[in-house]
Design goal:
Keywords: Cytoplasm, Repressor, Translation regulation. One of its GO terms (molecular function) is ribosomal large subunit binding. Belongs to the Iojap/RsfS family. The chain is an alpha+beta fold. The chain has one domain: Beta Polymerase, domain 2, CATH 3.30.460.10. The protein has four helices and six strands; from the N terminus they run H-E-E-H-E-E-E-H-H-E. Strands 3-4-5-2-1-6 form a six-stranded mixed beta sheet. Strand 4 and strand 5 form a beta hairpin. Helix 1 packs across helix 2. The longest helix has 17 residues. The protein is globular. The N and C termini lie far apart (32 Å).
């Protein structure tokens, strides 16, 4: 699966599970560690774990498996490494504290609005 296709699939899954404030950064021009960071928040540790579980389950259905997963037990910041796409699922507090979007502010933010369901 191409990295853009994987990133969009992850965004769709996260949005379907009510992840908050989903952002995608194209980091490929800046580093070789991945092509995209997908960053989102959950409202509770239960939701953060549910977001991680949903990603894992849905992507496994299409034979996409993570390389590594960190932070599941504490569920304040779960990092899921899919090679070309790295997914960060934060609590609101940890997202503000670590400020991934600010640290990678040179990265282009990808417009994912066509893939997000507007609930307004």
């Amino acid at each position: 699966m191409e990295s853009k296709e994987l990133m969009l699939k992850a965004v769709t899954i996260l949005d379907g599970k009510k992840a908050r404030n989903i952002k995608v950064l194209n980091i490929s021009p800046l580093t070789t560690i991945a092509d995209y960071f997908v960053v989102c928040s959950g409202g509770s540790t239960t939701q953060i774990k549910a977001l991680s579980d949903a990603l894992e389950e849905e992507l496994e259905k299409i034979s996409v498996h993570f390389i590594g997963k960190e932070g599941f037990n504490s569920a304040n910041w779960i990092l899921m490494d899919y090679g070309s796409v790295v997914i960060h699922i934060f609590s609101e507090e940890m997202r503000e504290f670590y400020s991934i979007e600010h640290l990678w502010s040179d990265a282009e933010e990808v417009d994912i609005s066509p893939y997000i369901i507007d609930e307004n």
